[in-house]
Design brief:
Number of domains: 2
Largest sheet: 5 strands, parallel
Shape: elongated
Mean pLDDT: 89
């Protein structure tokens, strides 16, 4: 016997600039049994709505403005928009161009659904994410479902089982208040895990880029690549500082501030090699703060292994 789902207990949100599309998505969800369905016409309104409200499922149109749709999906996954980075996101599209598929996958959506679709198609996809949702992985530039095709492929990316508020409501049939309490607790716990892993990744990536900058100082690598590396260090450090403040890692504040000062010196062209070495040392110090059970030497050896792999296959430009 097929499982019965109480979608009437769940909350759904449709974001689409085209009124006819919004209604088609809304009607498909209503046909499944959803009753609490909000409809929004722009990504700006979506950001504002998520700042004040919670939802279990977001259906967002991607083909009308792929860049903006992907940007807001990334903001959700990064915890910059809304209170639940782990809500189920299904992107919709009228066309399956490589740009759209890559953008949606890279933004951390759970699924991509091609229009026109039937109620059954929507129901089958959503049921999959209720019953067998993929775990999330965290890298220096991605937070979202694990899409590695080969589960045996070596990777040090930690797999995180994230909360699924839609499952709590639709599959487990919890009353609204009980589901909200459990979801809030699970979201906070998973957010802490993701924050820690993201900070570790950012600190490690700063160490990688510091080595590239040291090499550039000695070999005279292209100014364009050096500037790109410096800007990437700045962005990673700002993200790390934001997450450290959210997570209460006070020990990182001074380190992040020092990285900011070093980056300024590098941009001004001062003591390039010396500053790159200092950046590398700061990155190691950050990792020690975040992973106190590992030593400086452990982190240095890990960095050497990764750099060796990068150089063996050639650095992408």
């Amino acid at each position: 016997m097929a499982a019965s789902y109480r979608y009437d207990l769940a909350n759904a949100l449709v974001c689409d600039p085209v009124a006819a599309n919004r209604m088609a998505s809304r009607n498909a969800l209503f046909g499944m049994g959803f009753r609490n369905i909000e409809m929004i016409g722009s990504c700006d309104d979506l950001r504002q709505w998520l700042g004040d409200n919670d939802t279990d499922l977001l259906v967002i149109e991607a083909s009308e403005n792929i860049e903006e749709a992907c940007r807001v999906m990334q903001e959700i996954r990064q915890g910059k928009t809304g209170r639940n980075p782990f809500l189920i996101i299904i992107a919709t599209t009228w066309q399956t161009s490589g740009e759209i598929v890559r953008g949606v996958v890279g933004a951390g959506a759970d699924d991509l659904l091609v229009r026109p679709f039937s109620v059954k198609q929507v129901a089958d996809r959503i049921r999959t994410h209720v019953d067998a949702r993929k775990g999330f992985v965290v890298t220096s530039d991605y937070i979202g479902p694990d899409r590695r095709r080969d589960s045996q492929r070596p990777s040090d990316a930690q797999l995180i089982a994230v909360p699924n508020s839609l499952k709590l409501r639709a599959a487990e049939g919890l009353p609204a208040q009980a589901a909200a309490v459990l979801a809030a607790r699970a979201i906070e716990k998973s957010r802490s895990l993701v924050n820690l892993e993201k900070m570790r990744r950012s600190a490690f990536q700063i160490g990688v880029l510091a080595d590239f900058l040291k090499e550039a100082a000695n070999t005279g690598a292209s100014p364009e690549m050096r500037r790109a590396d410096v800007e990437r260090v700045r962005a990673l450090n700002e993200e790390l500082a934001r997450r450290a403040a959210e997570s209460g890692f006070e020990g990182l504040n001074d380190l992040c501030g020092t990285v900011t000062n070093v980056v300024k010196s590098v941009e001004e062209g001062k003591e390039q090699e010396k500053n790159a070495i200092v950046l590398s040392q700061l990155a190691i110090a950050m990792q020690v703060v975040l992973t106190p059970d590992r030593t400086d030497l452990d982190h240095e050896e890990e960095l050497k292994r990764v750099l060796a792999k990068v150089r063996a296959r050639g650095r992408a430009t």
